[in-house]
Structure formats: C-alpha cells, structure tokens
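Researcher: We're teaching a course module on how sequence relates to structure. For the next exercise, students receive a sequence and then see the predicted structure as tokens, so they can try to spot secondary structure elements on their own. Here is the exercise chain.
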Amino acid sequence: MKQGNNNPKTWQLLPLKEILNIEVGDDQATKDIADAKGTIPYIQSGDVKNTKDIRIRFYTTRDRIEAKGMKPDQKVLTKERLLLAMARLGTAGRVGIFREAAIHNQATAALIPIIPIDIDFLFYYFRYRQPLVAQEVEKHGKPRITKKYLQENIFIPLPPGGVEEEKRIVERLEARLREVQQGYKLIENTQREITNAFNKALLNIFTPEQIEKWPGTRRIELRNMVDTIQERVVQQNAQLESYLYIDETHITPERGLLHTRSTWQAHQESIESSIILLEQAQDVVLYYKSNALARLAVLLDVDQALCSTTMIPLRVRKDRQKDLLPGFLLWSLLSKQFLAYVTTNKQGMMQTSPSVNKVLSYELPLPDINMQRDIVKHLMRVQEITHEMQEKADDSRNKLTRVERAIFQKAFQGEL
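Model: And here is the predicted structure for the students to work with:
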C-alpha cells in the first residue's frame, strides 16, 4: 500500500488516558440552571454537533451554579478542550471544540490535553471514531457511554514530528473535506426544497379559502372529538422494555413520519420520572406540546407503545369515528392554521408551549367523511413521493459519508 509522508508503523498508538483528562459534567447541571441574564455558557450534549465551533443557546450565573450545590471554581472549565457528547442514540460520540469558560451537563465530557497535542487533530480523530462510540451505545442498549469505556477502548495515533506534523495533517485533511462539505450543502438544499414542496401541498389544502369550499364543513372543538391518554407508568418496569418508545427526536418535523424506531430499553436512563403508556395505540395521534413551532405530530400504526410526557396522545372517540378520520386529525395538527392558533395566547402574544386545554379548545374545521378521505389519500401520496425523494437524497448523503470516512482513514494512517 502506498504510504504518505509518515509510515503508520512509526506512529505511536497511545491510550486516551495518557493524552487526555476526562471531566464529565455534573448531574446537577440540569436545564434549570439556565438564566437569561447569565454570562457563563451552559452546554448540553445536544449543542455538540461535530462542528468545531459550538453554538451556545443557554447561559447561567455563579449564583445559579452555587444554588445547585456546585462550586463554580471546580465546575466551570476554562482550559481549551474537546467536548464529547456521551448520551443518546444519534448524539453520542459527537464532538466540538470550546476555548472559553463554561459549564456543561452530565451527558457531556470535556477532554483536556495533558500532553502537547493539536486540538484540531483531536477533533477530527474523534469525528472519525464516532461510529465506534455510537456502536457501543447501540450494542449494549444503553443511552450513555462511560468514562471507563473511553479510557479503556479509545487509542489515539500520534505521528512522528509532534504538534507541527499534526497541524500539517489537519491542513491537508481540511482541504479534502471542503469538497465533501460542498456536497453536503447541495444535499441539504435539495432536502429543504423537498420539505418545502410538501409544506406547500399541505398549505394549499388547509387555506381559509379551501376550507370554505369543503362540503358539509363544521367547526367543532377538538375536545368533543377526541380523548386524551394520560396513563403514566414508572420507568423501572421490565415488562415494557420491548415497547416502542417515542419522543420528539424520533419524529420528522412537519411531515408526520417516525424516522427512528427504538424500544424503551434504549431510553431507560431518560431524565423523565414517568412516561405515558399507550395500550391499543393503533390510530393514536401524538402531538408534541413543548414546542409548537417544531410542528411535530405522528399517527401510530402499532398496538402498544410508550411516549414521552412532552407528547399529547389523542384518540378519536368511538362515538365520533364516523365523523373524524385519524389521518385527517394528523394533517390538521400539522397545518399552518392550527400552528397559528396554538402559538397565540388570549393577549395576542406568542406562546410556544401550548397546554392540553389550549389544544383541546381548537375549533377543528371538519368536512364530511368522504372529503376527509380524499384529503388524507392525497396527502399520503404526496408524503410517499416526498419520502422516496428524501431516501434518494439520504443515499447520496451516505455515499458522501463513505468518501469522508475514507479521507479520515487515510489521514490517520499517514496516507494523505
């Protein structure tokens, strides 16, 4: 095999613990320490997105940190470090670089160099190794990787020539990756256009003008058409481990699709103390209430499931099944008309987390059942076409990912 400037046989392969200290965030550093007047960045695992720069969404204060029983001088890290997401399928293994003072939650680890090493070199190496970390989470059905796992299973190759050679490798690597990033942007633009086309189809059906043309249209409060399901169960229940579990991360925004199906077993360390049990879940519509702007809703096609308490489960009442189709309910909840309703309070101010009562008070425009069937059939066909187009875009993304991984592999084998 053709080698680059460095023969990989001359590289050192060192365990992570000889290169980096691992500082796992405090379990008291939860969302409630966020303060709009704060100046100390508060970082969660969801903020770590495999980009060098981490976009800060929340800040906190020394007083808030102390109120949770933590010592700011110990928990606010100031050294240049790599941040590693430690929790959740699809997130675990992501990395980012942070160079300012900040506090991070327990689902994030700070990797702090204890020997001279280029932080960008580390960033790209951990991006390259992310699938290994993700496999660990998936293989054991655990939502979190541990400090011990990182110390015992991650080995980092270091080229001869030290930091200067690491910087040269990064420079060559980034030159190759720029072309890949252009490809990703093209795919993202294509997927955005596909989503916009679907939204336009949905919008055109639920315009006020179209609604007025529907035959037999009535406006009926949603509470008179559906029942809500509120049966909560504790997490520690072995009988529920094989049940499908759904939260907001599993639903494709605006399109009413489950893009991820996983069991409760993979989520048992969720921060929630209870979940909602859905027996006879077939044709139940889940609506995400914590952020209406996300436009998340899905129609279930399984017999039994569990869902996060951030969801409102709605089931068409038996005495109303001849008047309202579950599919029509789904598309109504995803319409711009419903969005405008739930995001405006009585004072005309914006609200993003509607109450159950607010949702149930919606006056649903309801055409006759045949018109509902036509609307559902049309939107399901548009959804199907959209899904096929998205799958093709996903295939292109996967091919690009394989190219990217081949570039990473060459870089860390001294072949770039």
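Model: If you want an answer key for the exercise: The first helix runs from residue 62 to 67. The chain has a mean pLDDT of 88.
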